[in-house]
Design brief:
The protein has about 500 residues and is mainly beta. About 5% of the residues lie in helices and about 40% in strands.
Length: about 500
């Protein structure tokens, strides 16, 4: 790992390949790269070692405001193994500290709406007596104010998304014993001695419990502009031998009703994203629960199997409002995992960049630009932040850095509809800094960087002589990332 574990919000565990990755493949010379140029900002920190955003969430809006978390040099008074790490909002070159909940030390935004509303989570300065870790509260930011969303009587809550109407979704613990450690086993990163229920919240109201699909736990991930919500829930309390947990299903919530959207025959499924046209994507296990395929679902049409590139696993990570889906799939015999696009009824292999032989696509904007990563299938080396345009091969974003840069751009977290890119950069000491790449337009010249000519040539001349194979460990990490969409806080692991 290239990221120190001293203070890792689960956001960093989620970016497993942002921070572990990789080395070799060639896609030929990328002619489309020649017209691109960017102003590049390393946003830095508040004096500490790291800054980070939550990959897999809407962490930049079309106004160009990016939200995340950054360390200070000060230790947390009540939990000194972690530094004080407030939330940040970055815009047009300015990094702003937007604070934490009263008494707290850490705050991680999970989403920002088009009009600048922010949802996330903070600690509250107290230790959870059931786990020995900081208590967490879902939070909401509006006009410089921060709201503590509370819980359903348990210790913790997390906010995962917000829309322009101020509807916030997430999940909160109640007082019921959690027999299956939903926070640790399913959501990831959080011990949960009591059960979680999905919630909906708006200013001036209490948390609305969205219930479950019949089991003890549920979690809401995204809310669209229509006020519809997606998430996951146990459907019962009966453990399946194939998975070790009860049946888990993706849900679609609308107007007070939670709907089980079904499966592809297995007992385990999850959802990754919900667009403004009520379309959901994710993956669902096939009968036997060994193989799992990406799906798309919409009301009235049900769940459609999107297939694979010949392997046993695929996942749909994002769907834009034009219905174009991106994610990843294993190839024949599960030799490699490759970024994938589904459009016009067809599956497309997007290839790789930076001399790597595996890749994954995480998000697509309305213009068709895709954010993702290329990495070594063996899980070694350092990953390359990757951008795919609507046409053309994969682009290694490291080619836009000066040749003497001390950063390695390891993962592209998000690209907004203006082409502004949020990237994780890794310093030589292994610490991450968030890097923002703002496209240059018109006659802009000052501070603009095109791709290095030497880098383009070097990429063109790579050979594919030492193709590596996807290891079981790397495959497990890919599936783990695909399952876990919500972020918690540092160092919280199952005993």
């Amino acid at each position: 790992m290239h990221i120190r574990s001293r203070v890792r919000y689960y956001a960093l565990a989620l970016t497993w390949l942002t921070l572990t990755s990789f080395v070799p493949t060639t896609q030929g010379q990328n002619t489309s790269i020649r017209h691109l140029s960017y102003r590049i900002f390393d946003i830095g920190t508040f004096g500490g070692p790291t800054s980070q955003t939550n990959g897999g969430s809407r962490i930049v809006n079309d106004a160009g405001t990016v939200v995340g978390v950054a360390d200070t040099a000060k230790a947390c008074p009540y939990f000194p193994e972690f530094p004080v790490s407030p939330a940040f909002a970055w815009h047009d070159g300015v990094l702003k500290n937007i604070g934490v909940l009263p008494g707290g030390c850490f705050s991680l935004p999970n989403g920002i709406s088009r009009n600048g509303l922010i949802a996330g989570s903070s600690d509250n300065g107290k230790i959870d007596p059931l786990t020995g870790f900081p208590e967490l509260r879902g939070d909401f930011r509006k006009d410089g104010r921060i709201f503590n969303l509370g819980t359903f009587g348990g210790t913790n809550s997390l906010s995962s998304d917000v829309n322009t109407r101020g509807l916030v979704v997430g999940a909160a613990e109640n007082k019921d014993p959690d027999l299956f450690d939903f926070g640790g086993n399913i959501v990831g990163g959080l011990l949960s001695p009591t059960a979680w229920h999905a919630f909906l919240w708006r200013e001036g109201s209490k948390l609305k419990d969205l219930g479950t699909l019949g089991g003890p736990d549920s979690f809401a991930f995204f809310v669209n502009q229509r006020g519809e919500v997606n998430g996951i829930s146990f459907t019962n309390s009966v453990v399946n031998p194939s998975t070790g947990v009860p049946t888990l299903a993706p849900f679609f919530w609308k107007n007070g009703r939670m709907e089980n959207i079904g499966s592809l025959g297995g007992t385990f499924g999850t959802t990754q994203f919900l667009n403004d046209r009520s379309q959901m994507v994710g993956f669902s296990a096939l009968p036997g629960d060994f193989d799992a395929h990406a799906y798309v679902w919409s009301p009235g049409k049900g769940m459609k199997d999107l297939g694979t590139l010949g392997g046993t696993f695929s996942v749909g990570d994002w769907i834009n409002n034009k219905g174009v889906i991106v994610g990843g799939s294993t190839t024949l015999n599960d030799v490699a995992f490759i970024a994938t696009r589904w459009r016009n009824g067809a599956i497309e292999n997007l290839g790789t960049a930076g001399g790597n032989d595996c890749s994954s696509a995480f998000q697509i904007n309305e213009r068709g630009e895709i954010a993702g990563q290329s990495f070594n299938c063996e899980g070694t080396g350092v990953a390359h932040a990757t951008l795919w345009e609507p046409t053309g091969p994969a682009i290694d974003l490291n080619l836009f850095l000066p040749s003497d840069s001390n950063l390695q751009l390891a993962e592209t977290h998000f690209v907004n509809d203006h082409g502004e890119i949020v990237v994780v950069g890794i310093l030589p000491d292994g610490n991450p800094h968030i890097v923002i790449m703002v496209p240059c337009t018109g006659t802009e010249a000052e501070g603009c960087r095109g791709a290095r000519e030497d880098g383009s040539v070097a990429q063109q001349q790579l050979t594919f002589s030492n193709h590596t194979r996807l290891t079981p460990e790397a495959m497990a990490a890919i599936k783990k990332r695909a399952m876990r969409r919500v972020t918690g806080f540092p160092g919280v692991k199952k005993p």
